[in-house]
């Protein structure tokens, strides 16, 4: 996907490690692709002087490495054997309000609590209205604050029971890591929309949105947190090497619904999510793409040079390799090539005045390799198209290198519907797949390619299930409009927020 | 007072001015001496696009001029015809928690609300406990947040009735400016501990802790807000030129209790508080000091040069002038001189490693003028002594200029008790007046002066009442231990706060 | 002087102190009034690893306390037993060019050299042209760089001889501290325009523009550096307790020429310069003012209240005290009062958009005390008037407090000519004294006062000489146009400078 | 190369473009890989008020996008139709001295001059000594300043003649862009060590170290600047569309000597340098590597799965593709795979305390894809090995994914000698190729691989010449010790520099 959608958060937790906060920092760094707007860590340390636990916190807008630039934070402030962390890109809540930066930390009558949350609550509007009617004051526009109020207002006795009470009231797509004075609690929603995995690092347990966060600290993957599972990691779990597990009921009439877009684009290729390596799934997707769209059916002219398959780096690399390999296996000669170089120094506020055009933005990110492209039939594989503006610019650049033909292969179906479970797509009428009467050949013309080919929804789900051996059902609502879990009417309406 | 106590906040509000936020900025600047830790402004502007009012806010740690260094804040963000502002030095609440910076702003079911508060609620512990028991989450450790929760949880109908409901539940020493979408509400506690004045600037009304904030913007002083008064400044008030006024009942058995320390040290000499110019009151205090401690009774040796009266600049200047003038009137020859130069560039983090001694801190702030002091009998007038450490260093410096004698005259009585109404004195055992068995001659020896003379409590109150024509009764609990309003037992206990 | 002229630099040096850089920091802080644009320190430390001395440096735009905000600079970087420092406000050279920030530090064929300079070289244009013709590249537009090139290009053998060679070629008003690997060299120009004093702190020698820099670190004043003296402080000087002294010849036909404006306004009242306390000289000036302008000749109406004498704080305080005391001695009853409060938190970028008027600037700096001024005949004493704009605003503010009369007394003559020796006055046609045909009564009207009275040039010089016992002759060219040392024609022409 | 050597600078210049500085900014961004320590731009604009040209400058430590974060710099400051820019990583000169940041800008008797320089002058020691003896003061330790002094001291008449005079005196490996009031002058050293290309953007001419800087702004590549060419781009060049060209003589006995390491590692694959696409040359190098090291000779065990070829991204991608393709052509079955994911958010100060190990640094940069590597025979292709530490860590990580075998193929010969022409290799005894008696099998053991295979020096040069059709001779001194241009003895000795 060259038209990158907004990310939607990465979470991390660790229990029983002497450098808990530093490990969280590395974990968040590995999860940086899941949210670049803000980052935060809350650790938990026993304060000898006060005789109770405290939860030091550091969070701010910016990339992980900027927010934690001053390394003294780890030795002077974020001490303790447990910590949780969060990377954020807002999907609900105003992104410019610092009060929305996670994790959230509170002290209430039953003690300390810190919480990091990823996803969207589909019943947030009614929960929020209920609290507003009671005169509760909100400090943020984040769904996460709702969970804290639910816990704090619970009439149950005991912190864990209050947490369970709150969890039973929320609906939607979410993963949570909750830190109390005694435990690290990891929660995955009953439909399992978002990935969450359990790992082990020496005597410590870790949880993270993706396993790439385990690799960076040398932790081992243990297993996924199951849909609906509430996993309690405390001293007993350390002793027995087995965290206690509780289950939240699934909403009747709904099934598991792993977000297929995590495999298509969002997760890192070196992660294992929903029980399978992302790279392997993407390769399988590429193979299906090759079977659905065969090279001889695509290319138009004769050439003495083999057609080349190039990817939009880095997210489409594996699908492109899968496409090229499978095509060769099917007997169609072609070569995988690196036809686009990606420049990695780009930041947010890069563009100078007068150059606000997308053309410039694309050029600062990608550069085509003329020697590879010139005079060739080019099959470019991308994981998805959202607005299509970046794709068009990219095609323009490739076209200037004088290829014979350009064909655009997309390793996912057309995105036509909004996501209410955490993906931040633009409104449906901004999606290119909804324009030009959804006529693919007209969209191809608009993009400037000789032909455009999407993977079919069935092909996508088949590919994923083949690679993943049917461990889960998937949500592909953004491609099909079939929403596996109902959504409250006001969802998506802007909160009445102060500026 | 060379041992400066912590300040305790300045508040400001303005209604119906095209540059409301900029005026607030200047007002806060004039009130900078009342709090140097943080500063903030919330304005109120109608958002045409959204069809309702919004309350833009800017606040941060630092001096007013640092927090509002970027002047674009006024044109780009803090727009609108009304605004409130706050300077803070914490007396309750952790000073390092940014959530404690005022003003506070919320949106609740009855609309927008912003609030700036100065003082201490004496029933805060029980109010807080009540909310904690209900599961309410606090974002700050500030008393001010309590008032917001009281308003938001009120069962009354209508915003103003909810505010009155909340005000009836709080006790202690406070002034408030509250901004709603329709009004600016100014409140002074029923005992009138802290000053709050009403002013006029063209078509606008202004309220401020001290009138020096009116002078800087060219506003005219109208009158003091009365003890217990709730003044509502809205469009009707602008039309009729008369804000509506409501009264809060005074706690039975209590009387008005203006903080006499405002006159002694805290307020600016160019302000008018409690109905009288501070400068005039201080001069009267200086005169009483001259009558209680007559020069011939103080000096020990003969000299052909007149004794000189010097002040610790700038807060003691007027009292010293009053002392010298009255002494001459009583027939004791003496000269007022400027014997100490104050350096005004000092900031908080001034001292270099290895020079942490108080001696250095004093030297960077004051320098004696040798030519004035040498060979003279020196009568130094200071407004108060708290810990005494700075005074001792100052005396050391003066001593090095070889005066014949040094006598220390304090224009207030010994501070021996804590203040529960907003003054941030150190704990009683750190007060020098409580050391050495409260023996003044031993304290004089400790300070290194030839004699030490405090104004008597009666003398102080008489002086204030003479100058102020008996308009108010005063609280002098820090000198006498007689607290005019009862204080809850837990007051002063540290909140269980996160770090 | 309420219309503050630009300052022109303070210099400091210390030899043989274990915390040389920290002492320099405090010294510069005490000299902050001499230059607020930039600050810098160069220390000198033996680098064991490299086997030779190095000169660590830290300098930047800003006040001393801002530039050295990070106190680790002193322990980690500016180590060593000697250091020199500089505060700067540019009079020549572009102030916005960081290359102009002093001290300057170089390594040339004869070793390390660092230099801090205050004043103006009157033969800079020809020196600069000579180097330009030779193809020498300049990094700054500062006169100081010229001195470095002169030293480096000298054909003499030995660093000290090269320095002397350079000094013999420069003319004008200057003080220098030069740091080499072995010595600290302090130089004062042969006419002695600017002050420079020698002090002692334990085993260390210190030099500084004003003695207030000695007081802050507890150093003792030893003596002034003589006009034309080159003082060499090295290990031998430490052992013998006597620095070696060399003399530069004075330009034939010229005499000593201490800048009288240092006494009038520029130096701190607690400093001793040109051999006498500034405070004492200012008091003498005030007395002369009282003799030249007697109260009965000034006031117009009858009043049952004594006329009051107020100062523009803080620079005019002593002159006002002198005026009031002498007037009383002459039999004219009057009272010294504090009628203006000065606000000390003002920074450079204070004014908000829309309030750019001078009126606002003045209000943020001064506030009159109504109770003191109302209904009184006010004699306001200020040290000088430059453009007059601030004075006019100040008078406006005082007028609003309803005094009976306002009379303006200036403790120096009208400033009518430019200074080529370091004072940064505006161009002559901007000086108020040159407007209105130099008619004092018309200027009074412009300022809004009932009368205006300047001290005569003779009166000023007499007062200074009386206080200072004729130790020096003085330059009063800004009042008289008589320049004691010739100035090159191109002086004042802007350098062809890059932006 | 996973052990990245220090970069050595990128330069850029543009003449006759309305947004010259913004174009330079983008160009520098594309050249960011050539130097990450500092960045700077000097533009040239006619100052109507002053009646002459001025050269506004902005430069600082940091990446291009950080240094130019405030985009107002382009509209408010760096105006004008021409500009030059520089990215720097120091090879000579202290990197921490801000005075070393380029471009350099001076005003001397013949006008303004700005200069950006990349490379090393091999006769810098004697040139510097000559100036030192004359008493010239240096502000930086950079070779570039020498060129400025040579120009400024030239006895020739006219700026261009002075520049030519200076160029005739310098020796070594360098490219220069020089900006005068009238022209942009691009210079490449007579041996042509470093690349420099001419491009065209509408009516403007551009020059840049690599053509990727042309692509980002949409400029067209015209031709390389020839070895020894001095190209003058002025208004006449714009009119005639042909810049004037002058030639510098080559040192007798020397030949052209393009740095072969530019092709191996340093330049971007999408650039065209020395007349050929880098990508194409690297592919040819990969093919030669395949011919020299045939898969059957490398692998040890039988496997039913094809061996996989993976690269160390991104610099080795093309060589790995070339290796895999050629191997298949030679009849050895294998697959190109993406086995390592590179994380692109890593900054300089990334590592937290306690994790200083290289292991952590490598993990934060690379993550192996377990699904790709597990159970496979892995042939990893990297462009070069310097110290070998990073390679060893990388191998460790790959080893943990349980491959059957790991073989390390290096697409260049062992680096055994220092570079005096601008490449910043560590000292020879730190190079892994010089350890273990240069025994490749022992080095393989040290790295933890089953075998290690370097491309031969002949193979490298052949590959380059085949791809590049013999347009140039190459320097491969770092592999062979044969230095094509003599180097002065003191080269590499540290300058006597101030800290």
TrEMBL record, chains A, B, C, D:
Binding site residues for [4Fe-4S] cluster: 259, 419, 475, 478
Keywords: 4Fe-4S, Glutamine amidotransferase, Glycosyltransferase, Iron, Iron-sulfur, Magnesium, Metal-binding, Purine biosynthesis, Transferase
GO molecular function: 4 iron, 4 sulfur cluster binding; amidophosphoribosyltransferase activity; magnesium ion binding
SUPFAM superfamilies listed in its UniProt record: N-terminal nucleophile aminohydrolases (Ntn hydrolases), PRTase-like
Domain Glutamine amidotransferase type-2, residue spans: 9-236
Annotated Pfam families: GATase_7 (PF13537)
Active site: 9
Reactions the enzyme catalyzes: 5-phospho-beta-D-ribosylamine + L-glutamate + diphosphate = 5-phospho-alpha-D-ribose 1-diphosphate + L-glutamine + H2O
InterPro entries assigned to the protein according to its UniProt record, in alphabetical order: GATase_2_dom, Ntn_hydrolases_N, PRTase-like, PRTase_dom, PurF, PurF_N
Enzyme Commission numbers on file: 2.4.2.14
Residues holding Mg(2+): 315, 382-383
Required cofactor(s): Mg(2+); [4Fe-4S] cluster
Pathway: Purine metabolism; IMP biosynthesis via de novo pathway; N(1)-(5-phospho-D-ribosyl)glycinamide from 5-phospho-alpha-D-ribose 1-diphosphate: step 1/2
Bound cofactor: record note: Binds 1 Mg(2+) ion per subunit. Binds 1 [4Fe-4S] cluster per subunit.
CDD domains: GPATase_N (cd00715), PRTases_typeI (cd06223)
One GO-annotated biological process of the protein: purine nucleobase biosynthetic process
Cited Gene3D superfamilies: 3.40.50.2020, Glutamine Phosphoribosylpyrophosphate, subunit 1, domain 1
Function comment: Catalyzes the formation of phosphoribosylamine from phosphoribosylpyrophosphate (PRPP) and glutamine.
Cited NCBIfam families: purF
Family, as annotated: In the C-terminal section; belongs to the purine/pyrimidine phosphoribosyltransferase family.
Protein name, per record: Amidophosphoribosyltransferase
Species annotation: Cyclonatronum proteinivorum
Record gene name: purF
């Amino acid at each position: 996907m060259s038209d990158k959608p907004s990310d939607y958060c990465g979470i991390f937790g660790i229990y029983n490690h002497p450098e808990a906060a530093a490990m969280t920092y590395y974990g968040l760094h590995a999860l940086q692709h899941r949210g670049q707007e803000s980052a935060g860590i809350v650790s938990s340390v026993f304060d000898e002087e006060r005789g109770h636990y405290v939860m030091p916190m550091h969070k701010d807008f910016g990339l992980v490495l900027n927010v934690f630039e001053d390394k003294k934070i780890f030795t002077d402030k974020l001490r303790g054997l447990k910590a949780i962390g969060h990377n954020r890109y807002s999907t609900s809540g105003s992104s410019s309000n610092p009060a929305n930066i996670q994790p959230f930390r509170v002290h209430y009558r039953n003690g300390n609590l810190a919480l990091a949350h990823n996803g969207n609550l589909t019943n947030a509007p009614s929960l929020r209205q209920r609290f507003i009617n009671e005169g509760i004051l909100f400090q943020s526009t984040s769904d996460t604050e709702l969970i804290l109020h639910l816990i704090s207002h619970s009439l149950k006795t005991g912190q864990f029971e209050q947490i369970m009470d709150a969890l039973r009231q929320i609906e939607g797509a979410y993963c949570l890591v909750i830190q109390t004075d005694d435990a690290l609690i990891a929660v995955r929603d009953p439909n399992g929309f978002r990935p969450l995995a359990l790992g082990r690092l020496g005597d410590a347990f870790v949880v993270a949105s993706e396993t790439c966060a385990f690799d960076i600290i040398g932790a081992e993957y243990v297993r996924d947190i199951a849909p609906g599972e509430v996993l309690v990691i405390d001293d007993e779990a350390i002793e027995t090497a087995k965290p206690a597990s509780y289950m939240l009921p699934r909403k009747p009439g709904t099934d598991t619904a792993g977000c297929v877009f995590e495999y298509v684009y969002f997760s890192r290729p070196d992660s294992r999510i929903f029980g399978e390596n992302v790279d392997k799934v993407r390769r399988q997707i590429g193979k299906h793409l090759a079977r659905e769209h065969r090279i001889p059916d695509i290319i138009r002219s004769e050439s003495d040079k083999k057609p080349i398959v190039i990817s939009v780096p880095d997210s489409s690399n594996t699908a492109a390799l899968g496409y090229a390999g499978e095509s060769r296996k099917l007997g169609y000669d072609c070569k995988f090539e690196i036809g686009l170089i990606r420049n990695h120094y780009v930041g947010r506020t890069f563009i100078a005045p007068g150059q606000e055009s997308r053309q410039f933005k694309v050029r600062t990110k990608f550069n085509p390799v003329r020697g590879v492209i010139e005079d060739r039939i080019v099959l470019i594989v991308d994981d998805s198209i959202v607005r299509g503006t970046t794709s068009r610019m990219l095609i323009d650049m490739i076209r200037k290198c004088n290829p014979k033909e350009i064909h655009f292969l997309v390793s996912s179906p057309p995105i036509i519907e909004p996501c209410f479970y955490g993906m931040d797509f633009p409104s449906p009428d901004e999606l290119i797949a909804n324009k030009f009467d959804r006529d693919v050949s007209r969209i191809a013309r608009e993009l400037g390619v000789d032909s455009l080919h999407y993977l079919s929804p069935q092909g996508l789900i088949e590919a994923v299930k083949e690679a993943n051996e049917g461990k889960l059902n998937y949500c592909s609502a953004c491609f099909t409009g079939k929403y596996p879990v109902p959504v409250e009417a006001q969802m998506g309406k802007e909160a009445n927020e102060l500026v």
